[in-house]
């Protein structure tokens, strides 16, 4: 009897390649020997995880999530909501492909073909339980965020991502240099503190995974990483860009990082203070675009996995072992070896 596959795909996911061509190729390869029976489920902008939950029942054997980080989030969220052990395979068709990079499905290089290994992982991958995060009742696989730097992930136009790929995010980040930082109140571990930041992220993954060896243990540790970024000068922005987009790291992190199990992030209705560099950037932007600062607000846009998800306050928690995903066999073997070495020491 053939294995039953539900292929959830975003028809608009063309940031990296032509979705229809790859979908046709994958379905043809999976069904040519009669080993798999594939049912297609195209998403729309209105599709949520709740629409998928009723479909996650026997005799279904596998869910393939084909699209960008948002589509993958919806599919994994449905599996988590259903508390299903059905594994998910990723067919990364987006720009960032954050989770796929951190799982080792996308090669560790900047211009890697995101689909090069996807079919092999679908047919020969190893199932692995991973954590997810939850923000205001919505699951996320990669990260949640708020502030100008977070907005850089949300607002690049689709045509810019299609044409410039990851560089579209770089352009958006440069635009944030002129934006006033936000004053946040963060509560975690029973303690609260206020901090000025251009971006706060709570991540289930290590940065964007670009140029880095996959570390699956981060996705299984029952913790999230709180990143607080408050760049003041041009060099600070460049360090953040190289770290988050280029995978470059050094001993001096350009931001604050703390491991958490839960966090509440709110906006303090007080204007943040621009640095001298940000003030110059703001004057240049105002001269060129005649734009003015927005009104002070006690809410800013919240982001999960690169998509707008309401506003602050953000109530975030980790959901351990939320879903099962397929990972490359070599990545799974490396994790087993790492765990064995840790047990010995």
Mean pLDDT: 86
What does the overall shape look like?
A: globular
Quaternary organisation of the protein chains:
single chain
Number of strands: 16
Characterize the structure shown.
- The chain is an alpha+beta fold and 345 residues long.
- Helix content is 31%, strand content 31%.
- It is built from eleven helices and 16 strands.
- It has helices at residues 19-31, 49-52, 69-81, 98-102, 118-124, 148-154, 158-164, 167-175, 234-244, 276-289, 329-344, and strands at residues 3-9, 36-42, 60-67, 88-92, 126-135, 138-140, 143-146, 182-188, 191-197, 199-203, 224-229, 256-260, 262-271, 301-304, 307-311, 314-327.
- The strands form three sheets. Strands 6-5-16-13-8-9 form a six-stranded antiparallel sheet. Strands 12-11-10-7-14-15 form a six-stranded antiparallel sheet, covered by helices on one side. A four-stranded parallel sheet has the order 2-1-3-4, sandwiched between helices.
- A hairpin with a 2-residue loop joins strand 8 (182-188) and strand 9 (191-197).
- Helix 6 packs antiparallel against helix 8.
- The radius of gyration is 20 Å and the shape is globular.
- 43% of the residues are buried.
Relevant terms:
six-stranded antiparallel beta sheet, single chain, alpha+beta, 345 residues
What's this model, at a glance?
With 345 residues, this protein is of the alpha+beta class. It has eleven helices and 16 strands.
Topology record:
Blueprint: E1 3-9, H1 19-31, E2 36-42, H2 49-52, E3 60-67, H3 69-81, E4 88-92, H4 98-102, H5 118-124, E5 126-135, E6 138-140, E7 143-146, H6 148-154, H7 158-164, H8 167-175, E8 182-188, E9 191-197, E10 199-203, E11 224-229, H9 234-244, E12 256-260, E13 262-271, H10 276-289, E14 301-304, E15 307-311, E16 314-327, H11 329-344
Parallel strand pairs: 1-2, 1-3, 3-4
Antiparallel strand pairs: 5-6, 5-16, 7-10, 7-14, 8-9, 8-13, 10-11, 11-12, 13-16, 14-15
Helix pairs in contact: 6-8
């Amino acid at each position: 009897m053939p294995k039953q596959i539900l292929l959830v795909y975003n028809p608009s996911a063309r940031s990296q390649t032509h979705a229809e061509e790859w979908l046709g190729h994958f379905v043809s390869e999976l069904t040519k020997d009669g080993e798999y029976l594939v049912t297609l489920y195209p998403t729309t902008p209105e599709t949520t995880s709740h629409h998928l939950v009723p479909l996650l029942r026997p005799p279904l054997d596998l869910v393939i999530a084909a699209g960008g980080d948002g589509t993958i989030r919806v599919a994994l969220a449905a599996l988590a909501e259903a508390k299903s052990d059905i594994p998910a395979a990723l067919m990364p068709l987006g720009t960032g492909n954050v989770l796929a990079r951190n799982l080792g499905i996308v090669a560790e290089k900047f211009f890697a073909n995101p689909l090069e290994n996807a079919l092999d992982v679908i047919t020969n991958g190893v199932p692995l339980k991973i954590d997810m995060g939850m923000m205001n009742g919505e699951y996320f696989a990669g990260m949640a965020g708020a502030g100008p730097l977070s907005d850089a992930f949300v607002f690049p136009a689709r045509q810019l991502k299609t044409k410039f790929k990851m560089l579209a995010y770089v352009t958006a980040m440069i635009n944030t240099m002129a934006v006033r930082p936000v004053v946040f109140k963060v509560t975690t571990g029973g303690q609260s503190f206020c901090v000025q930041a251009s971006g706060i992220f709570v991540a289930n993954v290590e940065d964007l995974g670009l140029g880095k060896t996959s570390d699956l243990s981060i996705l299984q540790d029952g913790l999230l990483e709180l990143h607080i970024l408050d760049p003041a000068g041009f060099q600070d922005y460049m360090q953040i860009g190289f770290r988050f987009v280029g995978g470059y790291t050094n001993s001096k992190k350009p931001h604050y990082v703390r491991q958490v199990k839960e966090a509440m992030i709110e906006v303090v209705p007080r204007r943040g203070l621009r640095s001298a560099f940000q003030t110059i950037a703001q004057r240049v932007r105002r001269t060129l675009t005649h734009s003015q600062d927005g009104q002070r607000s006690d809410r800013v846009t919240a982001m999960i996995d690169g998509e707008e998800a309401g506003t602050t306050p953000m109530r975030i928690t980790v959901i351990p072992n939320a879903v099962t995903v397929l990972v490359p066999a070599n990545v799974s073997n490396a994790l087993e070896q790492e765990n064995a070495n840790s047990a010995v020491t």
